[in-house]
Design goal:
The protein has 242 residues and is α/β, with parallel strands linked by helices. The protein has eight helices and six strands, in the order E-H-H-E-H-H-E-H-E-H-H-E-E-H. The protein has one domain: Undecaprenyl pyrophosphate synthetase (3-Layer(aba) Sandwich), CATH 3.40.1180. 42% of the residues lie in helices and 14% in strands. Strands 3-4-2-1-5-6 form a six-stranded parallel sheet, with helices on both faces. The two termini are 32 Å apart.
Length: 242
């Protein structure tokens, strides 16, 4: 661990809204897809640093349910970029003992992307280090809808009754019920909104926003976010000292 972070609380789970790729590209006089390519390259550095610092889980908002509304050429480029990333990063994932997973309506992704997702998940399943989770074709409201549908089916099939449905029952039906809620939510790009990301899970997450575009987000910015997180008093609705 770097001296700058010695003695600080390291979040168990960090979630990141990686915003600003398109704006970064425009500012550089480049096409949007080149911005996404630069953003994908940055994922490696931040993932590696989170793993080194002892973060337990890193969830990255890589492709939202709303992103399907983007122009077809951009979506095709993003899907190719994703498939290439999954192949090229396997050595990095294995070398750093990272376990890879993904959440979202993964069945909506192209078949080649689904294939590479499954293979990267399979080959890293035995790793014992940090979990790297990509949120793909993901929306927080959609996740809750899918959870409610599962619960409704359980009621219909007699596996539970309506009065047994509580927060724990809903949480068990989320895409990855074993995942701890994020301690720290980071948003790059400067916008002050959560953009339909992990709506159920971030109820008590600490939020840190930076105007820095995702391709320019460095380890130093990550450290700054963690230092700010460590300074905050997390009371979860209680009064300090009780």
């Amino acid at each position: 661990m770097t001296v700058a972070l010695t003695g600080l609380k390291i979040p168990v789970h960090i979630a990141i809204i990686m915003d600003g790729n398109g704006r970064w590209a425009k500012e550089q006089g480049l096409g949007r897809l080149l911005g996404h390519e630069s953003g994908a390259e940055n994922v490696r550095e931040i993932t590696r640093e989170c793993s080194r610092l002892g973060v337990g889980r890193l969830t990255l908002y890589a492709f939202s349910a709303e992103n399907w509304k983007r122009p077809a050429p951009e979506i095709q480029g993003l899907m190719k970029l994703l498939a290439d990333y999954l192949v090229h990063e396997r050595k990095e994932i294995m070398d750093n003992n990272i376990r890879f997973t993904a959440i979202g309506r993964l069945h909506e992704l192209p078949e080649d992307v689904q294939k590479e997702l499954a293979e990267t998940s399979r080959m890293s399943a035995g790793n014992s280090g940090m979990v790297l989770c990509l949120a793909l074709a993901y929306g927080g409201r959609v996740e809750i809808v899918d959870a409610v549908r599962r619960l409704a089916q359980d009621v219909k099939d007699g596996r539970c009754s309506p009065d047994q449905i509580d927060e724990k029952a809903i949480a068990r039906c989320l895409y990855d019920p074993a995942a701890p809620d994020p301690d720290l939510l980071i948003r790059t790009g400067g916008d002050l909104r959560v953009s339909n990301f992990l709506l159920w899970q971030i109820s008590y997450s600490e939020i840190w926003v930076t105007p820095v575009r995702w391709p320019d987000f460095t380890k130093d910015h990550l450290h700054e976010a963690i230092r700010e997180f460590s300074r905050r008093d997390r009371r979860f609705g209680t009064i300090q000292g009780l």
